[in-house]
Amino acid sequence: MLTDHYELTMLQAALRSGAAHRRAVFEVFARRLPHGRRYGVVAGTGRVMDALAEFRFGEQELAFLRERHVVDEPTLDFLAGYRFSGNVHGYGEGECYFPGSPIMVVDGTFAEAVLLETVILSILNHDSAVASAASRMVHAAGGRPIIEMGSRRTHEYAAVAAARAAYLAGFASTSNLMAGHAYGVPTAGTSAHAFTLLHASEYEAFQAQIDSLGTGTTLLVDTYDVAKAVRTAVELAGPGLGAVRIDSGDLAVAAHEVRRLLDGLGATRTRIVVTSDLDEYAIAALAAAPVDGYGVGTSVVTGSGAPTAAMVYKLVAREDDEGVLRPVAKRSVGKPSKGGRKTAFRALEDGVAAAELVTTEPGAATPEGARPLLRALVREGEIVGHEPLATARERHLASVAELPVLAHQLSQGDPVIPTVFS
Amino acid sequence: MLTDHYELTMLQAALRSGAAHRRAVFEVFARRLPHGRRYGVVAGTGRVMDALAEFRFGEQELAFLRERHVVDEPTLDFLAGYRFSGNVHGYGEGECYFPGSPIMVVDGTFAEAVLLETVILSILNHDSAVASAASRMVHAAGGRPIIEMGSRRTHEYAAVAAARAAYLAGFASTSNLMAGHAYGVPTAGTSAHAFTLLHASEYEAFQAQIDSLGTGTTLLVDTYDVAKAVRTAVELAGPGLGAVRIDSGDLAVAAHEVRRLLDGLGATRTRIVVTSDLDEYAIAALAAAPVDGYGVGTSVVTGSGAPTAAMVYKLVAREDDEGVLRPVAKRSVGKPSKGGRKTAFRALEDGVAAAELVTTEPGAATPEGARPLLRALVREGEIVGHEPLATARERHLASVAELPVLAHQLSQGDPVIPTVFS
């Protein structure tokens, strides 16, 4: 039922006209990257496969559709037996993408494929928006670990998917326990101001935390006075204190002061974690500060200014009355589509990405010095593309390493490689 | 398990220090409205109560927490028996809010209340962001109905909550079927370009749609040539054609042209629905165009530039060693909190909102000419605040009608009424 009303009414009309069972090819692509971004990151592919496996209409749902007169009886019969039996190819999860990249290609009957539009786009648009922002932050952090801690700033289940997407783009861990449970993302956490305020004094609060969690814990030091808190922390935990967290003020200034303090107290190995509305720009600005890790919330789960990846799902080919697959394209002003089923390759020069090659030529061979971008995800209804999240994480690392260095400029600009259609 | 790692480790430390069972009052508030907004809209309250009723740790979850060594055995025992037994008061869903409004007040033991931080904030931040944007769009539309159709631009379950939030802020319907099923939001839909492209010609596609869905349907007229499509539509459906949808081009110009064409063909009652990246500004710009309805996607589900409401959940009072409830507040630079349990009233002058009165005075009487803003949601663990979504929709209508007219300026500015603390 994660679908739109019009998918079902179109299905009804197509069942009646007989066109519903024509073979149809839909493609997911983005007309453009979010404003000023140099590359996008595909994420959600694994979740699309999970959703596809569960995409069914149960009795409750059918009863609702009947009662509300959303569709007629023949359509309800079709939905009751719905099972996607076609093929899906797509960019590997974690792969970088560019405008026009055929990120996912769904090949089935119109009836089977049209119903998947909403859920496929929901997942890819959300997860890719998060991963695309996260990837920039990871680069800005230059090897320092980032904890994703934005669950409270986004829908409760979007939070779980966001933690997964940030992790595959290179974040070290998440605060979200469900993401740990569902996807194996490492979880981490520090402490909140409420914990300090709950106790009669900061001293008591730190003592309680150390008693329970050990000296390796991370103490939050900005509830009252940062310098005083740091002294109390080291007094209680000793120089082996794991880390301190600073969540307010000028983080660069505070980090330098806290580092000096910690070193003066002999806690030279105590790490400094900073949080507080960080985004890729703020992280980059802290590159020279003695920071050992970042916690990022709002900006990563909301795509740092681009909360959706603006991907669309368009019919690019369908069988005609003679059973021949024909390219189709709309000609809407400003939003035309390119007809024909596509495949894509990343052209490389000396190991550096040079262009996104997108072709409608059937069975096109991989051009020399290029690598193919589409992999099989679903074959005749059977999911064949499942892979561990670690594989997507590694793929992202490799894909982003291959981009020209300009890809990492945070300033606004054009896509770092051109998309070449043929 | 929709909670953060640190909520559980804080719980563990507080269980050990003995502070876990102290009475604690947490409050949800926003330090500011999204940039330039004049008011915010509370949404998600009903969903918070649903989430609270389901907030439990099952065997699978406990096994995960044990295996990952997230918390120790006494904490796991506490979680296994977790049940919120405290009280929650909150702004009525649909109510307008301002900086510092105590949107939700959670009063329980620290252990019971701290665990709810993440899920309460997730829901309120997401749903209120959507409702706050939706409310502006509804006003800009000036009585013309708006369909929410942004499911594909946000996480698949966030989409369901977004449809609910947009509806309570005044949208007419949603494309999201699950929102119809789960929350009774009216669902609606038109047709996609894929349906036209599936058929051999626009003529055949329109015929198929009319055959199946009747002449009252909405035909999409911008796949190829708008004028030609409108003529075909009226030729096939007759002057009783329900509506046409335009999804590209200069919508104001196109709407005028299509209206002229329809009127010339005798289809004077055929409605014109426009879609295509509309937000409150684009809707306002179409006020003088012959448009009968809007479809809004991306901008409403992403909060039109403010995808999260930036609400926080802060400890404002807790029992001390003598069992006396004491106000507490942090003093973090730039992010201080105000201690003490709060209640709030909307001061009115001649029926127009004049100020948000927030007081920490226990049992404060409603000031003359003001109305109280907090209502009971949960009493000793029992949910007492459930209400139909229609009630929240009516409350929003009344609350927004009470605001000074300046509230509806789309230009950036300050909150339309001041928050007065006492």
From TrEMBL, chains A, B:
The keyword Ligase applies. InterPro entries: Aldolase_TIM (IPR013785), NAPRTase_N (IPR040727), Nic_PRibTrfase-Fam (IPR007229), Nic_PRibTrfase_pncB (IPR006405), Nicotinate_pribotase-like_C (IPR036068). The lineage of its organism: Bacteria, Bacillati, Actinomycetota, Actinomycetes, Streptosporangiales. It holds the Pfam family NAPRTase_N. Catalyzes the first step in the biosynthesis of NAD from nicotinic acid, the ATP-dependent synthesis of beta-nicotinate D-ribonucleotide from nicotinate and 5-phospho-D-ribose 1-phosphate. One of its GO terms (biological process) is NAD+ biosynthetic process via the salvage pathway. Residues 1-125 form the Nicotinate phosphoribosyltransferase N-terminal domain. Belongs to the NAPRTase family. It catalyses: 5-phospho-alpha-D-ribose 1-diphosphate + nicotinate + ATP + H2O = nicotinate beta-D-ribonucleotide + ADP + phosphate + diphosphate. Transiently phosphorylated on a His residue during the reaction cycle. Phosphorylation strongly increases the affinity for substrates and increases the rate of nicotinate D-ribonucleotide production. Dephosphorylation regenerates the low-affinity form of the enzyme, leading to product release. One of its GO terms (cellular component) is cytosol. This is Nicotinate phosphoribosyltransferase. It is an enzyme of class 6 (ligase). It comes from the Bacteria. Keywords: Glycosyltransferase, Ligase, Phosphoprotein, Pyridine nucleotide biosynthesis, Transferase. It comes from Sphaerisporangium melleum. Pathway: Cofactor biosynthesis; NAD(+) biosynthesis; nicotinate D-ribonucleotide from nicotinate: step 1/1. Gene3D superfamilies: Aldolase class I (3.20.20.70), nicotinate phosphoribosyltransferase (3.20.140.10). GO terms for molecular function: glycosyltransferase activity; nicotinate phosphoribosyltransferase activity.
